[in-house]
Amino acid sequence: MSGVRVVEFMTLDGVVQATGPNGEVPHDFPHADWMRPFMASHAADMPDVFRRAGGFLFGRRTYDIFAAHWPTVTAADDVIAEALNGRPKFVVSSTLRQPTWRHTTVLPDATAARIQAAAAGLAGDLVVLGSCQLAQSLMAAGVVETYQLWLHPVVLGSGQRLFTTRSEPAQLVLTGSRVADGGLVILDYRAAGTPPRCVPRPDPRAADVPTTDDEEPTTTEATWQRAG
């Protein structure tokens, strides 16, 4: 059964940003080549991602990067090129009219119904490669079923993150993990709804709340402010 799968290269502090189209470096992101030392590990482990994919889903910028390169790779033994060039591709764009990369379908938006319909006809998962903003939209819509996070032993301190302070709470279940060359850790997760919510206990000194003899009063921020 096919579903939506997000695959992201990520630093230890959650950054997924890298170089832009044509290798350009965003003016506010000086670490664009942070993945370069791990390219050998990527080359060894990425083919498995593409073998299992039923199709691919891109945001417009990521699509343009891929479409500029992969159609030129014609080697019969290149697993990644075979998958990208021969399997269904979907790109979310309101401006792209006539894509030249074969087997591409343009989606005008990323509504849950539209994405689920695209995934339903595939033999394997609909894989989101990079496309951070699109992935965030799909996460917010609740259509992402699995994640594969390639966790690199790098800390950058700045850059675009997949999970932000605006992300909805989510519970993930680890379904697989392996360590690749260079200390890269590949983590597989399944989405499992939302985590339990912590309900603050009332402060009995801030209101007339009865307590039992064996219950200690809860100290809140307001209590600390009054104590100061």
The percentage of residues in β strands lies in: 15-25%
Supply the CATH superfamily name.
Dihydrofolate Reductase, subunit A
CATH topology name, in short, is Dihydrofolate Reductase, subunit A
**Could you give the order of the helices and strands?**
EHEHHEEHEHEEEH
- As a whole number of angstroms, the C-alpha radius of gyration is 22 Å
| Total beta strands | 8
Specify the biggest β-sheet: 8 strands, mixed
- Tally of distinct domains: 1
Low-pLDDT segments: 217-228
Characterize the overall form: globular
Description:
The protein is an alpha/beta fold and 228 residues long. The chain has one domain (4-191): Dihydrofolate Reductase, subunit A (3-Layer(aba) Sandwich), CATH 3.40.430.10. 25% of the residues lie in helices and 23% in strands. The chain has helices at 39-52, 60-69, 79-86, 112-120, 132-141, 221-227, and strands spanning 4-11, 53-59, 89-92, 104-107, 125-129, 144-152, 172-179, 185-191. The chain has an 8-stranded mixed beta sheet. Helix 1 packs across helix 3 (79-86). Mean pLDDT is 85; it is low at 217-228.
Which helices and strands occur, and which strands form pairs?
Elements: E1 4-11, H1 39-52, E2 53-59, H2 60-69, H3 79-86, E3 89-92, E4 104-107, H4 112-120, E5 125-129, H5 132-141, E6 144-152, E7 172-179, E8 185-191, H6 221-227
Parallel strand pairs: 1-5, 1-6, 2-3, 2-5, 3-4
Antiparallel strand pairs: 6-8, 7-8
Helix pairs in contact: 1-3
